[in-house]
Design the sequence.
């Protein structure tokens, strides 16, 4: 089960990730939106790379540090001035929750999907428990964002869709999602 296509792909991560970090803070909105989409894949590939390694190198630690910095940057983009950037941030946060949580027997998953099930507990660079805690915090952010009064209709639909996908893929969060949707319906 390989989540990275080749050794060439892995070799590119240390060169690619720092450049993406610069682009995620670009002034051009179209660039930022595309970079946020790409970071979803980089996040998954980097975590898979770390999980597959027998030992971690300083280069791997540096790449993970940059990925973590980009995750935090994108997390703040949920309040960005541009609606399209907020939409991409919502989709990124959805992917982050799915990547950084464990599946359950009732989980609806795609074949070959990488998630926390594939990360060894012994991984020191990206500790699974810490990743799971971060995912739960991100889910809380999404739930709060859905209920905010300044959300646009497009982002409300995107957020509701993302929360529904999360609830199907991670039934442990179903109660929170249903509760948030009921509150939203009650306020409508």
Sequence:
């Amino acid at each position: 089960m390989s989540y990275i296509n080749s050794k060439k792909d892995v070799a590119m991560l240390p060169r690619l990730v720092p450049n993406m970090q610069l682009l995620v803070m670009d002034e051009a909105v179209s660039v930022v939106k595309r970079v946020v989409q790409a970071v979803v894949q980089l996040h998954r590939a980097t975590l898979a790379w770390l999980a597959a390694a027998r030992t971690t190198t300083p280069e791997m630690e540096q790449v993970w540090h940059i990925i973590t910095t980009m995750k935090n940057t994108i997390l703040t983009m949920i309040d960005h001035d541009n609606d399209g950037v907020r939409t991409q941030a919502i989709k990124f946060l959805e992917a982050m929750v799915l990547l950084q949580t464990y599946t359950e027997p009732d989980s609806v998953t795609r074949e070959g999907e990488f998630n926390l099930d594939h990360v060894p507990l012994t991984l020191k660079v990206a500790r699974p428990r810490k990743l799971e805690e971060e995912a739960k915090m991100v889910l809380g952010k999404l739930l709060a964002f859905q209920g905010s009064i300044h959300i646009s209709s497009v982002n409300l639909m995107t957020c509701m869709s993302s929360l529904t996908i999360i609830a199907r893929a991670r039934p442990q969060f179903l109660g929170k999602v249903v509760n948030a949707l009921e509150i939203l319906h009650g306020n409508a």
